Amino acid sequence: MKTFRVVVLASGAGSNLQAILDRVHLTPATSEGPVVEVVGVGSDRPAAPALGRARQAGVAIAVFRTADFSTRDERDEAIAGWVDEAGADLIVLAGYMQLLSSSFVDRFRGRILNVHPALLPAFPGLDAIGQAVAHGVKVTGVTVHFVDEGVDTGPIVLQRSVEVPEPPDHPLLEAAIHSVEHELLPRAIGLIAAGKVTERPDGTVQVGA
Ligand code: GRF
User: Fold this and answer.
1) I want to staple 114 with a disulfide (CB 3.0 to 4.6 A). Which of 26, 93, 159, 196 is the partner?
2) Phi-psi region of 189 (alpha: psi -120 to 50; beta: other; left: phi over 0)
3) Protein residue whose Cα sits closest to atom 7 of ligand 1
4) pTM, whole model, 2 decimals?
5) Cβ of 163: how many Cβ atoms within 10 Å?
């Protein structure tokens, strides 16, 4: 069976990248699914710890610094060339802090996955955990979704709730959310690789058994 090839874009610590490397990279994701292989990790930050994790795992890295390109479109053309060269089936945004151009999103529609630390459509954008605490919600969570042109608005693949501690404690909540992310994102990749994630005519996503 053909290997399911994944590239990951990450700007920061890369704990989600690590979860992908530990949980699905080069292991059969499900009994029916193909082997998932992380074939490249890209970043906008040359010093991102995520790149160190990739090197450690023997995965090729690439750097696309925004400052090295005159426009976002030009930068994303370079990223698209890298994705094509890697023969990637799926692009995973794991804490990638750059907005992608609409032409990039259009070109890879249904093949770009993001993880967001809230139950979308609540608290999109930056500092979702801080937004949830400030709002006083009792339950928040994690969403894995496909990327569209909006900010955290694309079709939802998986979600799981996380209770906000009482009294609200940002670091404790963040740790709980991260550990759910580390389960949900690799699981979503495995389900997609196994062909169990399909789009309904209304644009929402069905996750099959
Ligand atoms: C995660 O909380 C993810 O939901 C958000 O950025 C953070 C990345 O963390 N998009 P890490 O770099 O994977 O540790």
Assistant:
1) 93
2) alpha
3) 95
4) 0.97
5) 12
